[in-house]
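Appendix C reproduces, verbatim, an entry submitted by the partner laboratory led by Prof. M.T., so that reviewers can inspect both the input and the predicted structure.
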Amino acid sequence: MPKSQAVPWTAYDMATVGKIGILSDIHCPYHDDVALRAAVDHLHEHKIDALLLNGDFADFYSISRHEKNPKYRNFLAEIEQVQQLLRWLRCEFPHIKIVAKAGNHEERWEKWLYQHAPELSQSPIMGLDNWLALKDLDIDLVGEKRIITCGGLPVLHGHEKGNGISSPVNQARGAYMRLHHTVLEGHGHRTSIHSEPDMMGAETVCFSTGCLCDLRPAYAPLNKWNHGAAVVQVAKTGEFNVENFRIASGRVRTS
C-alpha cells in the first residue's frame, strides 16, 4: 500500500534573485481582461525576472463537483481558452521563468479523473501539464499542494490550509492564526496584510493577494473580493520585500 503522506512534500524554490511577479486567481475563462492587463503592465514596469501563477489560473467550471449551468459546460473550450491565456502570458514574458501552481480549481482535473476514469488517472498522457501544453511553453507546473519559496518567503495558493478559517475579516490575519508563520497566499480574492512581533521583536508578516477574475460571478454576486497582484523583490540573502498592490477601475493602487 502506498504511504498516505504527501510525497514529495518539499518546497519548490523559485531560485530567483530579483523581482518575481505573482498573479493569483485569474480563473480563466472568467477572468477580468482590464484587471489582468493592468497587472501585467505593472509587472512590465517592474521588469520582473520571474512570474508565478499562484493557483486558480484556470477555473474548470465544467468539471466542478458543484451544481453547474448546462449551457456553460464545455470542458474542451475551457482548455483551449486556458491554453490561449498561457500562450499570451508567455508572449508577454518571453525570456523569464514562469511557474504555475495548481490551486483547488486546477485540482478539479485530477479529482474528475479519479471519479470518472481511474484506470487512466495515472497515465502521464492525462497529466494537466500535458493537456495544457506547458512543456511547449516552458512553464513548470507545481502540484501536490507544495509550498513555493521566493527567497525567504513561503507562498501558498491558500487552499492547502483547509477550511478552518474560510472567510476571516482579514484574510492575512486568518493565515497567521492558522500557520503562525510568514506567508503570502491568494485563494481568498482579497488584498490584505497582517504583522505581529513576538516578545523578542521578531516579526511574522502574512500577505493575501487580490484576484484577477470577474468580481460578480453568478454563484457569489455579493462578496468582499478585489482585484490585485504582487511583486516580490528577493535579495541574494533571501530577504524579501512585497509590493501587494490593488487594482481598481483598471488602475494599479499601491497604497
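The mean pLDDT is 92. Additional entries are available on request from the coordinating office.
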